[in-house]
Amino acid sequence: MVKLPIYLDNNATTQMDERVFEAMKPYFIEYFGNAASRNHSFGWKAEEAVDWARETIARSIHADPKEIVFTSGATESDNLAIKGIAEMYASKGDHMITLTTEHKAVLDTCKALERKGHRVTYMQVSKEGFVDLDMLRDAITDKTVLVTIMHANNEIGVIQDIEAIGKLCHEKGVIFHTDSTQSVGKIPFDVQKMNVDLASISGHKIYGPKGVGALYVRKKSPRVKLASQMDGGGHERGMRSGTLNVPGIVGLAKALEICISDMASDTKRIQSMRDKMWMDFQAELDEIYINGPDPLDKPEWRLPGNLNVSFAFVEGEALMMGIKDIAVSSGSACTSASLEPSYVLKALGVGEDLAHTSIRFGIGRFNTQEECDYTVRQVVEAVRHLREMSPLYEMAKAGIDLKKIEWAAH
Amino acid sequence: MAYSEKVIDHYQHPRNVGTLDPKDANVGTGLVGAPECGDVMRLQLKINPETGVIEDAKFKTFGCGSAIASSSFATEMIKGKTVDEAYAIKNTTIVQELNLPPVKIHCSVLAEDAIKAAIEDFKKKQATVPVESMA
Asked: Closest approach of chain A CAs to the CA of B115, in angstroms?
């Protein structure tokens, strides 16, 4: 019997790996020192741990340890990168480019800068979520100081060709930041090969702790400079003041180390569960649509554990209620306070009617095939139950074109 | 967000799901909401034209659990009522009965709208029905 509840929301956060927890433990009570205390063994012990973490993380992404800045998480990393560049390079230009499908940590940071007089281009994406390189090339002007484009999308799992984007940015002399929160540790990520200048990393998406992250800041060719957004004791080479979160930093590094060493086997298992889930849904149900690249056609362009499906004529929150022992998330308006369906799906051109019916499944390291099979059965049953009582399904089956009805929007 | 027990009960065991013949002169159909908004309710009432009593009610709803529960509860509540009594039902009754949170009040409003739309459809049909068939 499968153990309930089942956690299938690994794009939101992940369960911490026990190996990570074990690595962190000594740094709470035993080695509690301040890594900035240079004059006693308590401080040295903490500093040693931070040095190890910095080297481990740098090695994992092909960077230099001096290029790693510890933060409180990816939101702070995104803020520091984008605001830090905008401020530092203000005399060079006032323009930046991003995507309409970015995480709110990027979009809202850009909007904050717009209020201060910066200009931002929000580029449209294709219906699968890809950025168009020619469009990006055209959008870059001599006033552009930063391009910020995420590596992998949190909702639809689409992976951008950041190697090509980075190359283009370098040709044009523009700094390139990528929000790699969803990708680092899950798929190959190499700042040299991919021409990345700044990259945001988070602990809790990779089976590590919450409240800790990092920002990779390129030191040479080009040397990237940032205006700090947090003033204080001048930690992290002046880029981010604040006493280092030593256990968190150790956890982040350990989590990444495990992700790198287990990547091949994790990916194979997780991807096969995801693919089977998608095939099973298609075998059981009609009128379902993938959001983002089809996992079976373009597996290399989609995060291995991510599946986002619209179950037409069934509202997402109602579906989640029918599978209440399974944790997933929905692009339906009803699951958020805003009453607006997912802006990411809207950006793909998914109609609002279908956006309301979308469910995101996030499969991770600790999920089993049994859990995925149980989920498919539960979802299929709930979709059938809800379609039985869906006027839209009945009308569609009767051949009525729902688009031609004059609905009274409320 | 936790659902009230009544909402869960109506979601799991919806009352009066189904379809009545929309061409029947004694059936009023109310279709309210929009797919883009994430809620569509269709409420159908079979009304005795002589007594004005609602003899049967069926619904189908596309929407969240609270929307489904609101329409299911509405069918239960109006069966046996006269058209005038049903027309006077306020959404606040549904809110109270189902313990809907503020963010779900629009579901109850939609149910009230569906009742009114179904009754109006019935009245419109009756007005165009030849007199002899009314007898």
From this structure: 15
Q: Is residue A410 part of a domain?
A: no
Rounded to the nearest angstrom, the minimum Cα separation between A296 and chain B is 29
Q: Are residues A249 and A324 in the same domain?
A: no
Contact A178, A162 (CB under 8 A): yes
Asked if B31 is an interface residue toward chain A (Cβ–Cβ < 8 A), one would say yes
In chain B, the residue whose alpha carbon lies closest to the alpha carbon of A321 is B65
Burial class (CB in 10 A: 0-12, 13-18, 19+), A287: middle
Chain-chain contact of B64 with A314 (C-beta, under 8 angstroms): no
Name the residues of A annotated as catalytic. 334
Same domain, A191 and A76: yes
Domain that holds residue A96: 18-257
Give me the residues paired with residue B42 across strands: B31, B60
Q: How many domains does chain B have?
A: 1
Give the total number of structural domains in chain A: 2
Does A351 sit within 8 Å of B33, measured CB to CB?
A: no
Tokens of B23: 């061409």
Q: Which of A205, A232, A257 is the endpoint of a domain?
A: A257
- Residue A322 near chain B (CB below 8 Å): yes
Q: Which residue of B has its CA nearest to A402?
A: B35
Based on the domain organization, do A167 and A48 belong to the same domain? Answer: yes
Domain-located, residue A315 = yes
What strands, in cross-sheet order, belong to the sheet with A329-330? A288-290, A306-311, A358-362, A329-330
- Chain B residues touching A352 at Cβ < 8 A: 35-38
φ, ψ for residue B57, nearest 5 deg: -145, 135
pLDDT tens per residue, chain B (135 residues)? 678 999 999 999 999 999 999 999 999 999 999 998 899 999 999 999 999 999 999 999 999 999 999 999 999 999 999 999 999 999 999 999 999 999 899 999 999 999 999 999 999 999 886 655 444
Asked whether A33 and A46 are in contact (CB, 8 A), the reply is: yes
Q: Does A77 touch chain B (CB under 8 A)?
A: no
Q: Does B57 touch chain A (CB under 8 A)?
A: no
Strand partners, B31: B42
- Which domain-ending residue is among A257, A275, A296? A257
Is A209 in the B-facing interface, judged by CB distances under 8 Å? no
Mean pLDDT by 10-residue block, N- to C-terminus, for chain A (410 residues)? 96 98 98 96 98 98 98 98 98 98 97 98 98 98 98 97 98 98 98 98 98 98 96 95 98 98 98 98 98 97 98 95 95 65 94 94 98 98 96 95 81
The verdict on residue B67 lying in a domain is yes
Give me the CATH number covering residue A46: 3.40.640.10
